[in-house]
Design a protein that fits this description.
Structural class: alpha/beta
Number of strands: 15
CATH topology of the largest domain: TIM Barrel
Bound molecules: iron/sulfur cluster
Low-confidence stretches: none
Order of helices and strands: EHEHEHEHHEHEHHEEHEEEHEHEHHEEHH
Distance between the termini: 32 Å
Helix content: 40-55%
């Protein structure tokens, strides 16, 4: 079993907070599509076993259907799609129309991940998003009218621009839509070298307050719980039976193949590859018939720490036996720290698993870093 991720490295505008790899120069999208299909051709992909396909970015929805079709065909040449369970396309509201929805459906897309981020025009503008709140609402109603897709919505909270009341209204609106089954809600993080980080440094934007982040996270948990949705990962929430399969596979270490600039691949054990996060370099290496990637051998400590981090973020927590595959003394070495977190009500031990409590989720980064194995 394996998944495939395809990174489309183009966006219409640069959102101020974003540190993903993308370019706003849309002139060479055709070259890029040819190169990504070339990378697929060069890769030794298993002929059977693909379960999920995910188009992320960047903004895959800005591609013409003919471009997406080239990528589907390149993949289908290499691997049998008959066991496929989920095909996701990340899309932005400005790209949604009945025509685009139909073209994606015809290609076999089953799930849309819609990057709304906010329903507030002032906030959208402050973040330099390419769409308005009106386009967000229109896109949601078109998707509902068209029907037939699993739908996930992305929202951001804890920003300098969103009040608690506005956040509550956004949540209520989205969670009450019958055709939305999944929510990815991200706490705004200020990444270095982003425009937002420069704005905050220059004092033109005030950083969001921690209290606001905490209040909005708690509001989110309350709204999710009240509706009987499942909080299955710190940033991911869904109606029962609607977890994102592709992303869940990342957290359970299922192998995946990544194509396109900056995409990562993982063999399910200790081998990872990452492609150059540079469009020109990626194109030139593919043109020279070389795989544009760097190989990385994960140490036992890398594997343990990744399992700890991803496991603790999920509803099931992390099984200690999984960590002991890489370091048999991990629990003994961390016993005092684990007991301390349990006494503070931040961690639970359920069977062999450690799980974060609601208050533990608020400081998950600190807990995870305190429990990491440093060789
Ligand atoms: S659309 Fe998405 S990938 Fe593109 S700049 Fe904005 S947040 Fe980043």
């Amino acid at each position: 079993m394996f998944g495939v991720y395809i990174h489309i490295p183009f966006c219409r505008k640069a959102c101020t907070y974003c540190n993903f790899h993308f370019s706003t120069n849309l002139r060479n999208t055709d070259d890029m599509i040819r190169a990504i299909s070339g990378e697929i051709e060069l890769t030794a992909l298993p002929t059977q076993g693909i379960k999920t396909l995910y188009f992320g970015g960047g903004t895959p929805s800005l591609l013409a259907p003919s471009a997406l079709k080239i990528l589907f065909e390149a993949l289908k040449e290499k691997t049998d799609f008959s066991g496929m369970t989920e095909i996701t396309l990340e899309c932005n509201p400005e790209d949604i129309s009945i025509k685009s929805l139909k073209s994606w459906k015809d290609l076999g897309v089953s799930r849309l991940s819609l990057g709304l981020q906010s329903l507030n025009n002032a906030e959208l503008q402050a973040m330099n998003r390419a769409h308005t709140a009106e386009q967000s609402l229109k896109s949601l109603s078109l998707i509902g009218e068209f029907g037939g897709f699993e739908v996930s919505v992305d929202l951001i909270y804890g920003t300098p621009w969103k009040t608690d009341q506005e956040w509550q209204q956004e949540l209520e609106f989205i969670l009450n839509l019958d055709h939305v089954q999944h929510l990815s809600a991200y706490a705004l993080s200020i990444e270095s070298k982003t425009q937002l980080a420069f704005q905050i440094k220059a004092g033109t934007v005030l950083a969001g307050k921690d209290e606001r982040m905490i209040a909005q996270f708690e509001l989110l948990q309350h709204e999710i719980q009240e509706r009987g949705w499942e909080a299955y990962e710190i940033s991911n929430y869904c109606r029962k039976q609607h977890r994102a399969i592709h992303n869940s596979h990342y957290w359970t270490f299922v192998p995946y193949y990544g194509f396109g600039p900056s995409a990562h691949s993982f063999d399910g054990h200790q081998q990872r590859y990452h492609n150059h996060a540079n469009n020109a370099r990626y194109l030139s290496e593919i043109n020279a018939a070389q795989l544009p990637r760097i190989e990385e051998r994960l140490s036992d400590a890398d594997c343990l720490n990744e399992r700890l981090m991803t496991g603790l973020r999920t509803i099931d927590g992390v099984e200690i036996a999984q960590l002991h595959r890489f370091h048999g003394d991990w629990e003994r070495e961390n016993r005092q720290q684990i007991l301390h977190f349990i006494e503070q009500g931040l961690l639970y031990k359920v069977g062999d698993a450690l799980q974060l409590s609601a208050s533990g989720k608020l400081i998950s980064d600190r807990i995870i870093s305190d429990l990491m194995w440093v060789e």
